[in-house]
Each structure stands twice: as structure tokens, then as C-alpha cells.
């Protein structure tokens, strides 16, 4: 057997003994191809040779050959050993679950830290906020020092005048609407055509509404 064939056979033999479960040649090829760069034909020949030499076992199911490790090389396992293995498996599974949960928590914390600001970024933002606050203070002081403030009495007067104008607006709009409706009773065309003909623009045309009182 050449050196390269010997290496391939050693890799496959070690893999089957480590996994200790049945595999087809296709399974072994798929599992070892990426890591060891084994070709499918080389895998098939190596496994057939290992079986001929008695280093692994071969079973034929229909048209498919299944290979597995020679079980005689492993020591017999009694019930006590099986129970101990089951216990170890259970403990390791619990440990894996705990570690998985811990990894998820650490991953979440890492994402939060990546999204948070660095110390330098926080310092820069604090300076920006201080500058913004300083600007607001300056504006406030300017407003406070102004001499043209509107007194409550003046504000009340303006609101009362507005109420008067709004009432007059509503009154005139109602009168205009009544007059237009009276004309439309004998007008042969639609209201829209009438308004276009006389050149009247309504509040709705100008998108104007009554202010809230």
C-alpha cells in the first residue's frame, strides 16, 4: 500500500473507531472531504481494503454497503457502565444547556454594548447638549429682558376682537349661502358651474376654516 493510500486508510479507520457507528462510503466521503480533501473513489477503495484486512466490518443491505468499527476492540459494557454513561451524558447535556444559555446572555450583552456610546462619544454628546442648553438660556434671557411683552389685558382684547370678526364671518357666509341657494332654485346649471360663472371662490376653495373659539 502506498503512503498516500495508507494515510487515507488511517484517517478513515480513526474516524470510524472514534464515531463507532455505521456509515456508508458516501457518508464518510461527505464528512471527511472538506477537512482531508479525500476523493470519493479513494474513500470507497480505502474502506473496501480496510474491510478486507479485517480492520473494519462490512454489511451489505440490498445494493448498499455499510461499514462500522470492529467491535471486538472495545471492552464489554455492563449495566453499571451504561448507567454511569447515561448519568455522565445527562450531566454533560445539562452543562451544555447552561453554557448555551450563558453564551446567549453574553451575546445579548455584547450587542447592547456595541450599540451603546463609547466614553468619548458620550463626552462629545454632553458637550453638544451643554452648548444647546446654553443657547436656550440665552434666548430665554433675551425674551425676559424684552420690553414689548404682551400684557394679559392686551391678549384678552385681541381674543375678543377675534371672536367678533369670526362671528361676523359666519354671519356673512350664512347670508351669502342663503342668497346663492335662492338663486340656484331657478338656475339651470349646477352650483359649481354657477360659482365658476360669477367668479366666486368659497372658503373651501381657499382651504380656509373657522378658527377654534
TrEMBL record:
Major localisation: nucleus
Alphabetized UniProt keyword annotations: Coiled coil, DNA recombination, Meiosis, Nucleus
Keyword rRNA-binding attached: no
GO biological process: homologous chromosome pairing at meiosis; meiotic joint molecule formation; meiotic strand invasion involved in reciprocal meiotic recombination
Pfam family, one: LZ3wCH
Domain Leucine zipper with capping helix: 150-206
Compartments it resides in: Nucleus
Coiled coil in keyword set: yes
GO molecular function term, any single one: double-stranded DNA binding
Domain Homologous-pairing protein 2 winged helix span(s) in chain numbering: 10-69
InterPro entries: Hop2_WH_dom, LZ3wCH, WH-like_DNA-bd_sf, WH_DNA-bd_sf
GO cellular component, one term: condensed nuclear chromosome
Coiled-coil residue spans: 82-146
Family (UniProt): Belongs to the HOP2 family.
Name of the protein described by the UniProt record: Homologous-pairing protein 2 homolog
Organism of this sequence: Cyprinodon variegatus
The organism's taxonomic lineage, starting at the top: Eukaryota, Metazoa, Chordata, Craniata, Vertebrata
